[in-house]
Amino acid sequence: MIETEIIESRQIGSRLYNVLVDLFEFTVLLVRILLEVFISTVQQFTRKEQKDVSGEIIVITGTGHGIGRELALQYTDLGATVVCVDINESGNQQTVSDCNRLQRGAAQAYTCDVSNREKVLELATKIKIEVGPVTMLVNNAGIMPTRPLDKQTPEEIRKTFDINVLSQFWTLEAFLPHMREQNRGHIVSISSIAGVIGLSNLVPYCASKFAVRGLMEALQEELREGPHKNLIKTTTIYPYMTNTGLCKNPKVKFPKILGLLDPKQVASAIVVAQRTDVAEATIPRGLLYLNNVCRNLPRSCAELLKDYVDSGVYSD
Ligand SMILES: NC(=O)c1ccc[n+]([C@@H]2O[C@H](COP(=O)([O-])OP(=O)(O)OC[C@H]3O[C@@H](n4cnc5c(N)ncnc54)[C@H](O)[C@@H]3O)[C@@H](O)[C@H]2O)c1
Fold first, then answer.
1. Number of other residues whose CB lies within 10 A of the CB of residue 226
2. Confidence band (pLDDT; 50, 70, 90) for 1?
3. Residue 140: CB atoms within 10 Å
4. Does residue 240 have an active-site annotation?
5. Would you call 250 exposed, middle or buried from its count of C-beta atoms within 10 A (0-12, 13-18, 19+)?
6. CA distance 263 to 67
7. Nearest CA to ligand 1 atom 23
8. Do 313 and 246 contact (CB within 8 A), yes or no?
């Protein structure tokens, strides 16, 4: 009888102890969350130091035109060695010539279809020998077929996913080992505002850009938990419509507030986000916060706002 009472009181004691431990851990969690909220609020209003990229070997895809070309120019100007990869040989060669004319870092051109896994893996071996192990990857190459879903062919839908999504798996397979070997690195991925908000005439494109968002968020978790904790960074960017020609028929209601962005400014915002280790950002920055708020409102409110802003793309 006494023995049973002793066992029972021990069990109660141990349960009480476990509850107290849980309560303590939860309180610590709350305090840490509040501290992080305070720190990031302060950081919004202070200028963060930008990392030096002059020693980096940066692979950028889609450098033959548009945002990728501007990224190559800006990273070369910062003294980096830029490996320019594009399927369009002449456009890419032009970018490389313009980069090398800056007489800062260095740039080299490689022609490759990034949706072809074998070619990407071959390219990585070649780059390692000819340039060196890669420390940064910017997944930028992309296409944007623009028409209603019933007018998009199965081939086009597959191609959109091959170039916008699967290519990023192949470049990660090819270049992440370079970063793991060096215990450092940074992966940047160019999604789109269409990876944050669904837009008509862009169903496969939006799906591909939402997929990129998922890829990057999950990859960030894996890198955070793995042996390279915080040594390999990730940055995902969601630019609004940019004046590169990719958006053939843009629909803009308020050109002064939400007009087409300049690719130079977009590239510059991407470089700053990467150099300050921002995990994800829209360009302009406020759109991500606006979207986060709208997602908590009734769907009808978000629709009212979308109709009011009335921006997007017309069919080709
Ligand atoms: N322009 C916009 O409005 C806008 C907005 C948001 C996001 N983005 C994204 O930014 C990225 C760059 O867009 P952009 O406007 O500079 O486009 P762009 O068409 O001006 O340039 C894209 C480059 O990618 C290259 N490319 C295409 N397929 C390729 C492949 N299979 N292999 C290698 N290279 C390939 C093209 O040759 C081209 O040089 C894309 O991922 C796009 O989805 C663009």
1. 11
2. low
3. 25
4. no
5. middle
6. 5
7. 62
8. no
What is the per-residue pLDDT across 277-301, written as a single tens digit (0 to 9) for each? 999 999 999 999 999 999 999 999 9
- pLDDT of 38: 86
Rounded to 5 degrees, φ, ψ at 66 are 60, -135
Cis peptide before 284 (omega within 30 of 0): yes
Strand 280-283 with 232-239, pairing: parallel
Which residues touch 242 (CB under 8 Å, ≥6 apart)?
66, 67, 260, 261, 262, 263, 266
Query: Token pair for residue 50?
Result: 């930008």
- Which domains, from first to last, does the chain contain? 57-313 (3.40.50.720)
Helices 66-77 and 89-101 sit at what angle, rounded to 10 degrees? 30
Ligand 1 pocket by C-beta < 6 Å: which residues?
61-62, 64-68, 86-88, 91, 113-115, 140-144, 163, 190, 192, 239, 241-242, 244-247
Task: State residue 10's pLDDT score.
Answer: 85
**pLDDT tens, position by position, 128-182:** 999 999 999 999 999 999 999 999 999 999 999 999 999 999 999 999 999 999 9
pLDDT over threshold 80, residue 2: no
d(CA 159, CA 69) in angstroms, rounded, equals 22
Quick check: pTM over 0.90? yes
Per-residue model confidence (pLDDT) at position 3: 79
H helices of the chain, in order, are 2-44, 66-77, 89-101, 117-130, 154-161, 167-182, 203-225, 255-258, 263-275, 286-294, 299-309
